[in-house]
């Protein structure tokens, strides 16, 4: 849209980049944190998550592991994912304490993802690093927004079910084959992705109802 020639303000220009602040902040924090990680004596591995630690009562890795990454490609992949799928979620959670709810959704998705991985691999000494589980929480949440025209679609909406099936199929195939950008030959924690996705797709219902825009089309609670 442009203003009239007599308008002193001149033509109105839409911003090319108008992503919400919080997804941008999360995406930007990943390379910064990885830069610091590379300067730690142990490359940050003391902050990684191991399923064995879970069963021995050491739970801090559930949170700190999402602050670490396995390489710059890993960082780039998760940063792009957080920005792309976090943007629609952040736009929805805009009312009241919505921004805090967005951060909580992201962080809890990461914790649930790591915890779920630990349940699937009890006693494993393998290190789990990366924000992929948290990003998959945003993907799960965004899945219920695509085609919803500003509202959260029902959990069992046909479009939501189809998209979820595609995401989980891709996740399973990539996890089993082990060929993903940024993996660097390491195994893919597809179970963590699945748990993060599941949490996000369930949590966005009540969060959208509480913190989404008020309208006659209420987001689903499920």
Question: What features would you describe in this structure?
Answer:
The chain is mainly α. The protein contains eight helices and no strands. α4 packs parallel to α6, α5 packs across α6 and α7 runs antiparallel to α8. The N and C termini lie far apart (38 Å).
How is this fold's topology laid out?
Elements: H1 21-37, H2 51-55, H3 61-64, H4 72-92, H5 98-120, H6 132-143, H7 158-177, H8 190-211
Helix pairs in contact: 1-4, 4-6, 5-6, 5-8, 6-8, 7-8
Silhouette: globular
For the record, the count of structural domains works out to: 1
Q: List low-pLDDT spans.
A: 1-5, 7-14, 216-220
CATH class: Mainly Alpha
Which class best fits the helix and strand makeup? mainly alpha
Q: Output the CATH homologous superfamily.
A: Rhomboid-like
Distance between the termini: 38 Å
Order of helices and strands: HHHHHHHH
How many β-strand stretches?
0
Whole-angstrom Rg: 19 Å
**CATH architecture designation:** Up-down Bundle
Relative strand content: under 5%
Helical stretch count? 8
Could you please say which CATH topology applies here?
Answer: Rhomboid-like fold
The largest pleated sheet is described as:
none
């Amino acid at each position: 849209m442009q203003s009239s020639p007599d308008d002193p303000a001149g033509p109105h220009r839409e911003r090319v980049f108008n992503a919400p602040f919080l997804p941008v902040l999360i995406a930007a924090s990943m390379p910064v944190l990885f830069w610091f990680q590379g300067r730690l004596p142990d490359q940050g591995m003391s902050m990684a998550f191991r399923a064995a630690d879970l069963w021995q009562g050491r739970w801090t890795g559930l949170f700190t592991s999402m602050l670490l990454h396995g390489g710059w490609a890993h960082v780039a992949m998760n940063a792009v994912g957080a920005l792309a799928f976090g943007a629609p979620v952040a736009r929805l959670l805009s009312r009241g304490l919505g921004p805090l709810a967005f951060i909580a959704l992201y962080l809890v998705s990461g914790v649930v993802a790591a915890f779920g991985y630990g349940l699937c691999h009890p006693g494993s000494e393998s290190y789990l690093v990366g924000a992929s589980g948290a990003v998959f929480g945003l993907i799960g949440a965004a899945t219920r927004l695509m085609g919803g025209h500003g509202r959260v679609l029902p959990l069992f909406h046909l479009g939501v079910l189809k998209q979820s099936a595609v995401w989980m199929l891709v996740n399973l195939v990539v996890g089993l084959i082990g060929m993903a950008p940024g993996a660097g030959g390491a195994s893919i924690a597809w179970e963590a992705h699945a748990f993060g996705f599941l949490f996000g797709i369930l949590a966005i219902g009540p969060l959208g109802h509480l913190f989404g825009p008020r309208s006659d089309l209420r987001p689903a609670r499920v």
